[in-house]
Every structure is written in structure tokens, then in C-alpha cells.
Amino acid sequence: MKEGETIHDMYTKLSSITNELRSLGETINMSKQVRKVLQILPKLWESKVDAITEAKDLKVPTMDALIGNLKTHEMNRSQDFSKKEAKKDKSLGSKGNSSQCLYMDIGCSKHTTGNIKDFISLKALKGRGISFRDRKKGHILGVGRIGKSIEESIENVYHVSGLKYKLLSVSHICDKGNEVKFTFESCTVTNQTTKKVVLIAQM
Questions:
Q1: Closest by alpha carbon to 75, among 190, 199, 198, 187?
Q2: How far apart, in Å, are the Cα atoms of 11 and each of 49, 89, 137, 156?
Q3: CB atoms < 10 A from the CB of 10, how many?
Q4: Contact indicator for 178, 191 with CB cutoff of 8 Å
Q5: Which residue ranges make up each domain of the chain?
Q6: Top-level CATH class of 101-202?
Q7: Which alpha helices (DSSP H) does 63-200 contain, by range?
Q8: How many CB atoms lie within 10 A of CB 131?
Q9: What are the angstrom distances between the C-alpha of 22 and each of 7, 32, 121?
Q10: Torsion angle defined by CA atoms of residues 186, 138, 115 and 106, in that order, rounded to the nearest 10 degrees
């Protein structure tokens, strides 16, 4: 993927190549197409690729789901860059938030974070080791809740050593009686029983 090229541009080229090969009688399966897309993403996308790779270990996503996920991340990155530039222009002299990036994913098997400061309650565990995409290893150190309070929190979040981002499972959140709503600027998790907002993530 070339510098300045969008996910849409990249996918258009890949689709053209795939269609040409198909017309010549050579079929490329979905798993190979997904791996190819992840391999050609720039290094700046490494944390996103790690998140997708870990989430999809047991299930290969469809190409449409993968491209949709990447386009959302691309939009988030663009907005985040614009916000940072706006802060520079204001010259406030204050340091930015050092919290980890948050990813909401429909396919991951569990909630995870590498930042112990995210937790409002945490139980230590002697968990199994896990491997990241760059072959580095981490371990599950504990499990607990993250959020503002017990009522406004996400439970069963695993603390994983070496993880550089937060990864939350949309399906798990919905299974707990919550509604997840995405807009252009944010992602909001609302408890369907209490109607209280559990979590707001800026996009």
C-alpha cells in the first residue's frame, strides 16, 4: 500500500487483480486475500493489524468485514490527526492523553487491555501466555472491570502484559444486555435495562 493511498484505493486495485486472475481460471481463497491485505498495510497500522490478527485466530473474517473495519480505523486516524493539529494551533501547552488506543471489534473472543490503570477492580490470575503478531509474547495477569463505576463499566476484561491497546468485543458487550451505537464521532455503549451510558469511545 503506497503512501497517501486510501483503503478504498488499495481494495479497488486488489479486486481488479483478483478478478483478472479469476478470469484466467485461478481462484484465490478468502483466507489468502485477507492475509495479503494485512501484509501490505503500512507499519503505522501495526497495532490495528495485531488486534485483527488476535481477534481472528479462530475465524477468518470476510473481505467485506475486514475492509469495513479498516475503513473505520482509517477514518478514526484521520479525525485523530485533525484533532491533534487543532490542539497544536491552540498552543495550550498541555500534554495529550497518554491512554491506549481503543478498538471495538465484532470478532474478538475476549476483552483485553495492557494498561492496569484502566481497571476499577482487578483480580490477579496466573493465565496462559499469548503471542502477538511480531512474535513477542505476553501473559494474562488478571481480569476485572474497566469504566467510571460499577454501574458504568465493562466486566471480564483481561489484563495482558505487553499489549499496546484496548480491545473490546462488541458481541460480548451486546450479550450483557447493552446496545452499541456507532456514529461518525463516537461509539456509545448503553445498558438497555437502566438506559445508562456505560462507555463512550471517541472515534
A1: 187
A2: 16, 34, 31, 36
A3: 17
A4: yes
A5: 7-90, 101-202
A6: mainly beta
A7: 63-90, 170-175
A8: 12
A9: 22, 14, 53
A10: 20
Entry pTM: 0.48
User: 60 vs 56, 73, 118, 153, 182, CA distance in Å?
Assistant: 6, 19, 30, 30, 23
DSSP state at residue 29: -
Q: Which three cell numbers stand for residue 158?
A: 483481561
Helix (H) or strand (E) run with residue 51 in it: helix 46-55
* pLDDT tens figures, 155-173: 999 998 888 888 888 888 8
What would the pLDDT profile of 112-165 be if each residue is shown by its tens digit?
888 888 899 999 987 677 766 556 677 889 999 988 788 778 899 999 888 888
Element spanning 202, H or E: strand 197-202
Lowest pLDDT segment from 38-42, 105-109, 175-179 = 105-109
Provide the mean pLDDT of the chain: 76
Give the residue with greater pLDDT, 192 vs 127: 192
Cell of 117: 490503570
Does residue 184 have a pLDDT over 80?
Answer: no
Contacts of 127 (CB under 8 A, 6+ apart): 139, 140, 141, 142, 158
